[in-house]
Amino acid sequence: MVRPRLIAVVLVVLAAACGGENPAATTPTSAAPAPAVRTFTGADGVESEILDTSRIVTLSGDLSEAVFALGLGSSLVATDVTTIYPPEAVALPVVGVGRFLTAEGVLAESPTLVLGDMQTSPLQAIEQIRSAGVPVVIFDVPTTFEGLYQKAADIGEVLGVPGEGIALADQLRTDIDEAIAQAEPLDPSPGVAFVYSRGPDVMLLFGEGMTTQPIIEAAGGHDVGAESGITGSVAVTPEAIVTAAPDVIVITQEGLDALGGEAGLLDIPGFAETPAGQSMRILAYAEGDFLTFGPRIGESLSRFIADLRAEVDES
Question: How far is CA 166 from CA 42, 71, 154, 217, in A?
Answer without folding.
Answer: 18, 13, 9, 25
